[in-house]
Design goal:
There is one protein chain. By secondary structure, the protein is an all-beta fold. The chain has one domain. Helices cover 0% and strands 67% of the residues. The protein contains no helices and 15 strands. The chain has strands spanning 2-3, 7-17, 20-24, 34-53, 58-60, 64-70, 76-82, 89-90, 94-112, 121-140, 145-147, 151-157, 162-168, 175-176, 180-198. The strands form six sheets. Strands 2, 3, 9 and 15 form a four-stranded parallel beta sheet that branches. Strands 1-8-14 form a three-stranded parallel beta sheet, with no helix packed on it. It has a two-stranded parallel sheet with strand order 4-10. It starts with a strand and ends with a strand. Residues 49-100, 135-184 are annotated as: Disordered. Keywords: Signal. Residues 58-72 have a biased composition (Low complexity).
Amino acid sequence: MKKFSAIFVIAALLAVASPASAFVFPSNNNGGDINITVDNHAYVDNDVSTKADTGDNSSRGGSAKSRASASGWFSDATSSARGGNGGRIETGNADSSSTVLNDVNVNDISVEADCGCKGDINVDLDNGAVVKNDVSTKADSGDNSSTGGRSRSKARASHGGDATSTSTGGNGGEVETGNADSVSDVRTYVNTNIVRVVR
């Protein structure tokens, strides 16, 4: 008998690239223009692999061999053998989970011009991002086998004798697998721009 406990695998990845915050209080700009330039570029490459496995188990009964030989005059011989039965396989649960969160190029800009300025407020945002996610999640509790043992039989008699040989193979065992659950959660937020202007 083989019994395997549950396996739970979690992979979590958080990628945050290029956050920018700007607070401008132009109280003494003498009515001139306000110019804000933000330039963000990001490259994010995620390669995540998780696997939970309680399978690939095997149980096999023993082999049996029977041989009867009667060589004397009018002699008899009897032989029997039986192969062993396969065992019982019971696996636990296999749970695998992957979580990937990308929050790339977040800009939070606040401009407060409470001086009565007449100039222009210019906000120039240039965001560029490349995000690649390669996520593999696998849970496996299968590929199990439980088989009975093999058997072979051979009988030989001469000079009027009688030989009997019996060989029986074993029965296959029982296989009971647990649950296999696989979950992937990939979230990507790119180029979030928040601009507040108060004048």
